[in-house]
Amino acid sequence: MVFSGTFLILTYQNHGYFFQDCYILVPGWLAVIVALFLILTGVLGICIPIKESRFQQGSFLFFIIVLLCLEASGAVMSYLFINRIENELTTVGKVFGQYNGSDSDIGSRAVDTLQKQLKCCGVAAYTDWQTTSWYVHSGNTNVPVSCCKSMDNTCFGDVIQPDLLYQEGCLTKLKNRLKMFVMFLFWSSITAIALAVLAAIGDGAIMGQHPFQDYRILDSATFT
After folding, report:
1. Has this prediction a pTM greater than 0.90?
2. ∠112-133-86 over CA atoms, to 5°?
3. N or C: which end of the chain has fewer CB within 10 A?
4. Which domains does the chain have, with CATH numbers?
5. Which residues cross the membrane (predicted)?
């Protein structure tokens, strides 16, 4: 869960220029917070049988309830984001179309970073570059060097050497990676909810079997 959440946060930090808004950060940070609560609740759950503290049992149940709320929120947010991925990435084509190859341009840097990290080229395929103004200005012969499979001196982005270029488009790769990790986050939340419910039931059963000490004194044969 924390791995998926961290991935979503890092994805936004690296490729946030292509997203409509920062909605992707919500399920990501929720996953990290839930992971911290899981650790805290797990430590408390281990200590309860040893010290047999009513305060700890009550605290454990409280953390489980908070955990359930966070996990439910994370599951809902993840599900909603899966349906929003298409809308979130509608600006990808526009950003690629405005590419000018300058390192000082934030959009161009974002495109180069995306192509290098995801090992892709163009929006749907490397041939998409042939319809951009940058391709025309470059002499109708080259795609960005960030499309090259190898960054040595053998590749200059020449379209007559397609075997040296990444073939798959960046939109599909980015979309598939997001869906994979968001789905993993969703099912992790569902699994954690089920485990938290079982833990709450178990803790409730333990508290029911061990009533408060004050009431046990009243039940003592001393007062009969």
Report:
1. no
2. 60
3. C
4. 2-91+173-210 (no CATH), 103-171 (1.10.1450)
5. 24-48, 60-82, 181-201
How is residue 173 written in tokens? 């790769």
pLDDT in tens, 32-55: 888 887 787 777 767 665 455 566
Rounded CA-CA distance 180/136 in Å is 36
Backbone dihedral region for residue 139 (phi beyond 0: left; psi -120 to 50: alpha; all else: beta): left
Measure the CA–CA gap between 89 and 64, rounded to whole angstroms. 36
- Which residues does 41 contact at the CB level (< 8 Å), separation at least 6? 60, 63, 64, 67, 199
Written as six digits, the tokens of 37 are 């609560």
Which long-range contacts link 101-108 to residues 24+ away (Cβ below 8 Å)?
A: 101/134, 101/138, 101/144, 106/17, 107/17
145 closest CA partner among 124, 174, 121 = 121
**Nearest-CA neighbor of 174 among 6, 8, 2?**
8
DSSP state at residue 94: H
